[in-house]
Design brief:
- The protein is α+β, with helices and mostly antiparallel strands.
- It has 36 helices and 32 strands.
- α15 crosses α23, α24 packs parallel to α29 and α26 runs parallel beside α27.
- The relative contact order is 0.11.
- The structure holds zinc ion.
- Zinc ion binds next to α4 and α8.
Length: 1079
């Protein structure tokens, strides 16, 4: 169940990357060390695949020489790729003493390319796990078992408050300040149901030590000032703090964050389900805080909770990467652990007593106006308590079993629940969940009619009986194990973080994290168990599902007065608090409010904090060599990478010839084209083949702004897939069938996909509201912005809702082959392959034969828009193949203020301003300005003073956007944006402020790129390494005067160059103002 609260929102860049999924769905994704890279140009010669490998070798040799000539500046201080860290760690011995720690166990985990070293701290008993891996993106995390017994949100408020200043670093808010003083690749803090975790990662050794020092001091020696508690937790304060006569209201960051979190029906449901399935201990309360229980927490209780839970004896430390372990141990011992003695933290969670009979319960939620079918908004699911998660093999088996039962169109529950279209999708909580001491499995539907409740319960029961009887096909089990193999081989850029979250729950309950990492042992044991007992899985289903009396059936239905009731309850709570106040108390509240405002407004001295310098940033970028070739006239880019035996294929297909009336249907087309069957395969067989042979195949719409002109953009769809090298022919066979004979005519299948997609979009708004606001605000500023709204904005959400409501989809079905004809057309495409050198030439052969087979379908259509500009794909060759961009020289930006009224208690606010494209000389200044305004002004105004969960400014696609996230304010935040501009124009910022903003820009510019994604920016956007290097040099060169000039020139927006959008609840102020378009 998703009950993890993050300190800073993960502001997703697409609607699909929802913030809440960051940790909860932590799948094991792997990373291999960053390569030493060679300088390259894309090659001008088009060559045959036979010569490819030789060419690569030659190119590298030439370019290697070139590098020294061309890049006179110093190179990135990259550690050599080696197996040194992993091997060195193997030399530790059990019993060995290192810096007050004792080594308990050393285990090589070859499947994950790491060595695990388990230790304990002698004096305090603190536990420690180090994963030595030759990956420079080092990670640290410390987690505490935090087991609240009420819903005041004490662990969550504590998580916020410890980051507000500590003994050695007493300045306000060192966490946010460090964001700008470091090159971290990740910094955050998480409150789960039963633990609190503080992770960071960085590729820089000095930075690691700096951040470690700040994190250790924060968690072990925080100031926990009363003022921090008011700001982060809750407080009573005059609505306008400077006006003693304005009414008293509740304020506080966590208070608002949780109000926002519970505005989402999926979170409400998940929280209730967990609370009611484990009713006897800590899982029965809301660790994040129930908005109306939060005001019962006192500052004293907060400090007490810290003293008992944030102790080394209750701590688990995890480090990961290629930095030496000894250094970490020494620093952790000296700066923190040596100052403590051992205690018995007594934080164990007792087993949940098993029920002797099943239970049923019901809850209500707010109606969803975006629901695909307003008459069907009920959720019902059955949740089963399973065994203890510290039994690693049992947990492994149950999680595989869960996938077999629910995942994909071949799963029995998919067939029984989804395909009859009783609901729009599975319930938001579905499948195996190992985030509590005893795991659970849940199955049910959302978007269903209340009248169907009995039917759904019967189907669930019947399906379980059927599984016990029939079991699973061998091929499905193989497909699942294949998927696991791919997940272990695929390299992500945040492997350390994935590991930390993967082991967190089991370790929290004293399970063995090293055993959990040895995934292949579990696979072997699993195969053995199946061999010995063919009914192995069926027996589990019988035991854990059919005969399990600890199960809860929970239904949820919308209540029209839900929000009203909530508002009334809050009002009552407020009255209760206020009526207990004397005049003296009120005076004190007013004064404290002023003090807090004063503290928040003061310029703060952060000089106690460690910091990297701009000179610590590498002056040049590592260069990614790519090679251009062609297959049957279709351009193909090759990028050699250490992909661990996986081959990654992408193809970009242009939309330039697609008639305008079909544009709105493109996202729908993308989401169904790989899921309706192709060639001789029906959709079930297709799904099976995709699971057995690939790591997934997907298609997504693309709007790519040009680097040089705001009037130009490329429009297309991107095909992506990956597979193990042995399966390359199978992967291309699947694409071949999709190109040559996709199936579109199964209306029933289409309806299932449409419902699921509409439901997903509707659920996503409360997570990605700021993205929808930014997209809408930018809509009328550039031609690309307009199409972006069509594909990814509120317009698309509403369109999908309309489609989902249609009783007859034949009209939609007629559109799909029309789109296919234009899009899946070799006349309009280019491809890219990322693979190891050995696999590159082999893959080239398969691309070529694939192209040959689909070339017969090649059709030449005329572009719909008259102005098409060609940009060479190969920067050195104007005559070679090109990207075809739409140019709209007559485009007139226009001003528009849009308000979407939605049933949320919080707002998402955005203002966007048209500026300049990537290659423009002022672009770098605007990037630095956005970071500086965020850190030095907007964060303070919007989060600290305003009480929003997040807010700031960012540059992207030639547009400068202000945004706020889960914001109690609406139009007031717009004036905060404007005051931010005034602040920037005054120029009262220091060189230190500028340098910090630059560090922050560089930490995202230099964030690691996975081998599977190397070379993609040039492939997709034509963004060459030379352009990136020029941008980099401009970033370094940005001065105080440049920032003033950028603010003056671009942000004092004239009415034609900016747009505004707000998503939020009914708003009187906006209603009265005719300048707003209300949707
Ligand atoms: Zn939080």
């Amino acid at each position: 169940m998703v009950t993890i609260w993050q300190h800073v929102p993960t502001l997703s860049t697409t609607r699909h990357e929802r913030a809440k999924k960051v940790l909860s769905n932590a799948k094991l994704r792997l990373l291999r060390p960053k390569q030493c890279l060679y300088l390259s140009q894309t090659q001008r010669t088009f060559i045959t695949r036979a010569k490819l490998a030789a060419m690569f070798r030659h190119t590298k040799a030439v370019l290697e020489k070139l590098r020294h000539v061309r890049l006179k500046c110093r190179q990135l201080p990259q550690r050599q790729r080696s197996t040194a860290a992993k091997e060195k760690a193997l030399h530790y011995n059990a019993g060995q003493q290192i810096h007050s720690f004792t080594v308990k166990e050393v285990v090589a985990v070859p499947d994950l390319f790491l060595t695990a070293v388990k230790l304990t701290h002698d004096k305090t008993g603190a536990q420690y796990l180090h994963a030595a891996r030759d990956d420079p993106n080092n990670l640290f995390s410390v987690q505490f078992r935090t087991t609240p017994m009420d819903s005041t949100g004490v662990p969550h408020i504590l998580e916020h408050t410890v980051l507000c200043g500590s003994k050695k670093y007493p300045c306000r808010d060192p966490f946010f300040k460090m964001l700008n003083r470091s090159l971290s690749t990740f910094m955050n803090a998480f409150t789960a149901s039963d633990y609190t975790m503080y992770p960071f990662s960085t590729q820089n050794e000095k930075d690691f030590q700096n951040l470690l020092s700040v994190y250790l001091d924060a968690v072990f020696f925080p100031c926990l000032r009363e003022q921090d508690f008011w700001q982060e937790g809750w407080r009573l304060e005059n609505e306008n703090p400077t006006d003693a006569s304005s009414p008293l209201v509740f304020k506080g960051v966590v208070f608002n964050e949780m109000k926002g979190a519970f505005s989402d029906n999926e979170s409400v449901y998940g929280q209730h389900l967990q609370n009611k399935l484990y009713p006897d201990h800590t899982y029965s309360v809301v660790s994040g805080g129930e908005p109306l229980a939060i005001p019962d927490l006192t500052w004293e209780q907060l400090k007490q909770f810290h003293a008992t839970h944030y102790h080394p004896s209750n701590a688990r430390f995890f480090t990961y990467g290629d930095l030496p372990l000894e250094q970490h141990l020494k620093q952790i011992d000296v700066e923190a652990l040596s100052k403590f003695d051992r205690i018995d933290p007594n934080t164990q969670i007792p087993p949940q007593p098993h029920w002797t009979s099943p239970r049923e319960d019901h809850v209500t939620c707010s109606p969803d106006p975006m629901a695909p079918d307003p008459s069907r908004q009920n959720t019902l699911c059955v949740s089963y308590m399973l065994g203890d998660i510290t039994d690693t093999f049992e947990a492994f088996t149950l999680s595989l079993l869960s996938s077999l039962m629910t995942s994909g169109p071949n799963a029995p529950f998919y067939k029984a629940l989804i395909e009859p279209k009783i609901g729009t999708d599975f319930s938001s909580v579905v499948g195996y969940d190992g985030s509590t001491k005893e795991a659970s499995f849940s199955i049910g539907l959302q978007g269903m009619a209340e009248a169907d409740s009995e039917k759904v319960k019967n189907i669930i029961h019947q399906t379980i009986c059927d599984i016990v009887l029939k079991g699973f096909e061998d091929e499905r089990i193989e497909a699942l194990l294949h998927k696991l193999e791919i997940q272990m081989k695929h390299q992500s850029t945040n492997f350390g973080l994935s590991l930390a979250s993967y082991i967190a729950s089991l370790w929290n309950h004293d399970g063995d994290p090293v055993e959990l990492l040895q995934i292949n042992n579990s696979v072997t044991k699993f195969r053995q168990a199946l061999k010995e007992n063919p009914r192995f899985l069926q027996d589990k289903v019988q035991h854990y599902f059919k005969e399990n009396t600890h199960r809860l059936t929970l239904s949820m239905s919308p209540d029209d007065s839900y929000l009203e009731n909530q508002a009334r309850a809050e009002k009552e709570k407020l009255q209760e608090k206020i009526s207990a106040l004397s005049d003296g108390d009120k005076k004190e509240i007013y004064e404290k409010g002023l003090q807090l405002l004063d503290a928040q407004s003061k310029t703060q001295d952060a000089s106690c904090l460690p910091a990297l310098k701009v000179s610590d940033i590498a002056p040049t970028i590592p260069i990614t060599p790519v090679l251009m070739s062609s297959a049957e006239g279709v351009p193909v880019q090759f990028c050699e990478q250490p992909t661990n035996g996986l081959v990654y294929f992408r193809a970009m297909c242009s939309l330039n010839t697609l008639p305008e009336d079909l544009k709105l249907y493109v996202p729908l087309f993308c989401s169904v084209v790989t899921k309706m069957g192709c060639g001789s395969l029906d959709y079930r067989q297709q799904a099976q083949q995709m699971e057995l042979r690939t790591g997934g195949m997907s298609v997504s719409p693309q709007v790519i702004s040009d680097c040089s002109s705001l009037e130009m953009f490329e429009q297309g769809v991107l095909l992506s897939s990956s597979c193990l090298d042995r399966n390359v022919p199978h992967m291309f066979q699947l694409w071949r069938d999709i190109f040559n004979s996709p199936h579109f005519d199964d209306e029933e299948r289409l309806r299932v996909l449409v419902m699921m997609s509409a439901q997903e979009l509707s659920n996503g708004i409360s997570y990605s509201g700021h993205m929808y606001a930014v997209t809408r605000a930018s809509r009328h500023l550039t031609p690309a912005g307009d199409l972006h709204e069509t594909f990814d904005g509120m317009e698309q959400v509403r369109f999908m809702k309309r489609i989902a409501e249609m009783s007859d989809l034949t009209q939609v079905i007629r559109m799909l082959p029309r789109i296919k004809k234009h899009v899946l057309n070799p006349d309009n495409m280019r491809c890219a392959i990322n693979a190891t050198p050995q696999q590159v030439s082999e893959s080239a052969a398969h691309v070529e034969s694939f192209m040959k087979d689909v070339a017969a379908k090649r059709k030449h259509f005329k572009a719909v828009r008259p102005n098409i500009i060609q940009r060479p794909l190969d920067v050195l060759s104007d005559s070679g193949p090109s990207r075809k961009l739409v140019n709209d020289p007559d485009f007139q930006p226009c001003y528009m203020k849009t308000f979407f009224q939605l049933p949320f208690p919080v707002n998402f606010v955005s203002e966007s301003v048209r500026t300049v494209p990537y290659n423009h000389e002022h672009y770098a200044s605007l990037c630095v300005l956005a970071r500086m305004m965020t850190a030095k002004f907007l964060h303070g105004e919007i989060r600290e003073k305003g009480g929003a969960y997040g807010g700031g400014a960012k540059m992207g696609g030639g547009v400068f956007s202000f945004y706020s996230y889960r914001d109690p304010n609406s139009v007031q935040t717009l004036s905060a944006f404007r005051r931010g501009v005034e602040w920037a124009k005054l120029g009262q910022f220091s060189q230190q402020d500028i340098d910090e903003a630059k560090l922050s820009v560089f930490s995202s510019v230099d964030s690691p790129v996975a081998p599977s994604s190397k070379g993609l920016s040039v492939f997709l956007s034509g963004l060459t390494d030379e352009m990136k290097q020029r941008h980099r040099e401009r970033l370094f060169a940005v001065t105080h005067a440049n920032l003033l000039d950028a603010a003056e020139r671009y942000l004092c927006a004239g009415h034609k160059t900016c747009g505004v959008a707000i998503l939020g609840p009914e708003n009187d102020c906006i209603k009265k103002d005719p300048s707003w378009v209300v949707k």
